[in-house]
Amino acid sequence: MPKKRSRGEVRNNKLQKVAGDLFLKRGYEGVTIDKVVQLAGGSKSTVYSEFGGKCGLFVSSIESQCRELNEPLTKIDYTGLNLEESLKKLSFHILKLITAKRSVELHRLAIGEAVNCSEVGAAWYAHGPARTASFIRSVLERHRDELPKTTIPIERMAVILHDSLTGDILYRLLAGVGKRENDAKLDRLACAAVDVILGCFCSHEGPLRKALRQHIAKAQNAKQQYRA
Question: pTM here?
Answer without folding.
Answer: 0.81
